[in-house]
């Protein structure tokens, strides 16, 4: 099954759109408007904390952390949400390495651009925090029962 890709409907709703992609990946469909409300969207978008709380409300266990690329590559469950260029959220979907070197090509589901394949250097430039060897990641794992029901 292909990873669900959604484009953000407004300039600042990348966070809720990332959450929508991951929820759909796990078979849970939520209207964009509902996710915008849950993440308390405003003119500046949303924060990692509000995105995390919204994910928990729709039935995910979450962990936000700063990790190295090696930790992201070897230990982080996918899909996950990452902070991109310090002002945007994107999803790292499960990787399909058919025909690509897994250590040098990374697929990113960008709610602004769609599915993008980047070389490792370009990925690190957008993901790593300034003057750091770590980037921010929000890991999500389905809980047994969501607090809010998905639409069907």
Automatic annotation (TrEMBL):
<dbReference type="Pfam" id="PF03412">
    <property type="entry name" value="Peptidase_C39"/>
</dbReference>
<dbReference type="GO" id="GO:0016020">
    <property type="term" value="C:membrane"/>
</dbReference>
<keyword id="KW-0547">Nucleotide-binding</keyword>
<dbReference type="GO" id="GO:0008233">
    <property type="term" value="F:peptidase activity"/>
</dbReference>
<keyword id="KW-0067">ATP-binding</keyword>
<feature type="domain" description="Peptidase C39">
    <location>
        <begin position="8"/>
        <end position="134"/>
    </location>
</feature>
<dbReference type="GO" id="GO:0006508">
    <property type="term" value="P:proteolysis"/>
</dbReference>
<dbReference type="GO" id="GO:0005524">
    <property type="term" value="F:ATP binding"/>
</dbReference>
<dbReference type="InterPro" id="IPR005074">
    <property type="entry name" value="Peptidase_C39"/>
</dbReference>
<protein>
    <submittedName>
        <fullName>ATP-binding cassette subfamily B protein</fullName>
    </submittedName>
</protein>
């Amino acid at each position: 099954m292909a990873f669900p890709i959604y484009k953000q409907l407004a300039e600042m709703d990348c966070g809720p759109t990332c959450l929508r992609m991951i929820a759909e990946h796990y078979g849970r469909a939520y209207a964009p408007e509902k996710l915008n409300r849950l993440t308390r969207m405003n003119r500046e978008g949303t924060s990692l904390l509000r995105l995390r709380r919204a994910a928990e409300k729709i039935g995910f266990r979450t962990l936000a952390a700063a990790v190295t690329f090696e930790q992201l590559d070897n230990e982080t469950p996918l899909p996950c949400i990452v902070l991109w260029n310090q002002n945007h959220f994107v999803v790292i979907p499960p990787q399909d390495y058919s025909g690509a070197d897994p250590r040098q090509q990374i697929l990113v589901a960008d709610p602004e651009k769609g599915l993008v394949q980047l070389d490792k250097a370009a990925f690190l430039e957008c993901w790593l925090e300034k003057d750091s060897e770590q980037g921010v990641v929000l890991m999500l794992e389905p809980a047994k029962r969501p607090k809010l029901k998905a639409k069907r």
